[in-house]
Amino acid sequence: MINFEYYNPIKIIFGKGSETQIKTELENYNVKSILLIYSGDFIKTLGIFGIIENICKELEISFIENGNVAHNPQIELVRDLTNEAKKAKVDFIIAVGESSTINTAKAVAMGMYYNGDIWDFFEGKAQLNKAISVGVITTLLSGELETFNATSISNGFLQKEFKDNKIIPKFVIMNPDFTSRLPAYQTACGIADIFAHLVEGYFTTVEQVDTTDYLIEGACKSLIRNGLKLMENPSDYNARAEIQWLSFIAHNNILNTGRMGDCTATMIVNELIAQYGLTQGEGMAIVLIGWVKYIAIRQPDKLIQLANRVFNIDIFNNTEQEIGMQLSEEFKNFFTKLQLSVTLKELGIYTSHFEEMATRATINNTQKVGHYNPLDKDGFIEVLNLCL
Questions:
Q1: 255: helix, coil or strand?
Q2: Is-contact 230 243, C-beta < 8 A?
Q3: Which residues are CB-neighbours of 60 under 8 A, at least 6 positions away?
Q4: How far is the C-alpha of 328 from the C-alpha of 291, rounded, in Å?
Q5: Integer Cα distance of 252 and 247 in angstroms
Q6: CA distance 321 to 386
Q7: Closest CA to 172 of 75, 222, 99
Q8: Do residues 193 and 250 touch, judged by C-beta distance below 8 A?
Q9: What is the DSSP secondary-structure string of 274-317?
């Protein structure tokens, strides 16, 4: 185990009716002007918009809103919203929805005290000295950004991430009922995304991390159990609540304490999103299946442990490569039951842009991708080929 500092000051308000506590939170922060960011009209259907609007009237808080956030949020919208928020003297942002909305809200919060181009932060040209506060009402089963110190924005070609504790939200409202109207596909993508985050964190070269190993293994088992239950019965509130809480556990960094997990699959999926506009969860499902095959013949230690402890794969009568193939098949079976694509070909993606993506990700083969078994350009392409 390596040394660590753990910091997560966020307040979680979880369960049925938790949205009613928004008023108290806004009073606590003495909010005078709000920017509400969301995507589409679903928040009106769920009643969230009306609740926030009424609270603002009651507390005499000025209120502007924008529901134009799209999948894979763009820097152009961030710039526009920041300019509007500055004119309205916004001092608090509420993000309602999923990762795209939260990414946008955090990026706007970063720009409120900055006079340059917000993209400067993502290119490492500027340091964040101050940001206004953000609160989140999540409507997806999965998400890391509501409890994490990062945001990710695209400029139309590159997807860039920025991390700073100043953009950790002040509070998160989690009402599992808000996720009940999600299409089955979005539910499945959320489950896959949580699973992928757990698995990536599991693959570490740090020795003697028994506590977090067992925590991640248990979380994986619970997610598989409740994920399949929810897909069979979408009205199962308890399964839905378990998964939403698992999302928090998976993404709040407690499982990363004392270890350094991997990020290879995420980096590959970021390129697939930038190139093809894939959905994060489905992309992670596909890449994990291929990446496990790649790792099996190169650095199989953690793979063998995960295969045995979570999926009861026989590790004594199979070769390392056979164990890797069996684990890949277990992943494939799970994602198939979630009714997700499990190969790039199913999404009409072939090899035409693989070299371009690998060159971009490795910065012309000058930088490797990932921590557990870092990929150069050729390795990046090889993993993509295993995902076909």
A1: helix
A2: yes
A3: none
A4: 9
A5: 8
A6: 14
A7: 99
A8: no
A9: HHH---HHHHHHHHHHHHHHHHHTT--HHHHHHHHHHH---SSS
How far from each other are the two terminal CA atoms of the chain, in whole angstroms? 36
Q: Report CA 286 to chain centroid distance, whole Å.
A: 16
Round to whole Å and give the CA distance between 183 and 190: 11
CA angle 4, 266, 175 (to 5 degrees): 80
* SS3 state at 87: helix
Q: At what angle do helices 301-311 and 320-337 cross, to 10 degrees?
A: 50
- Per the CB < 8 A criterion, the answer to whether 95 and 22 are in contact is no
pLDDT class of 144 with cuts at 50, 70, 90: low
Neighbours of 371 (CB within 10 A): 16
The span from the CA of 331 to the CA of 271, in Å, is 22
Query: How much is the mean pLDDT over the chain?
Result: 93
Order of strands, sheet of 92-97, starting from the edge strand that comes earlier in the sequence: 11-14, 171-174, 133-138, 92-97, 33-37, 62-66
Enumerate helices (H) and strands (E) in the chain, giving the number of each.
15, 8
For the cut 90, the answer to whether the pLDDT of residue 159 exceeds it is: no
Non-local (6+) Cβ contacts of 313 within 8 A are 307, 323, 326, 327, 330
In the beta sheet, which residues pair with residue 13? Answer: 173
Question: pLDDT tens digits for 205-242?
Answer: 999 999 999 999 999 999 999 999 999 999 999 999 99
Q: Are 273 and 208 in contact (CB under 8 A)?
A: no
Question: How many CB atoms neighbour CB 176 within 10 A?
Answer: 21
Beta bridge partners of 35: 64, 93
Say what the pTM is. Answer: 0.86
Whether residue 284 contacts residue 266, with contact meaning beta carbons closer than 8 Å, is answered with yes
Structure tokens of 172? 């998160």
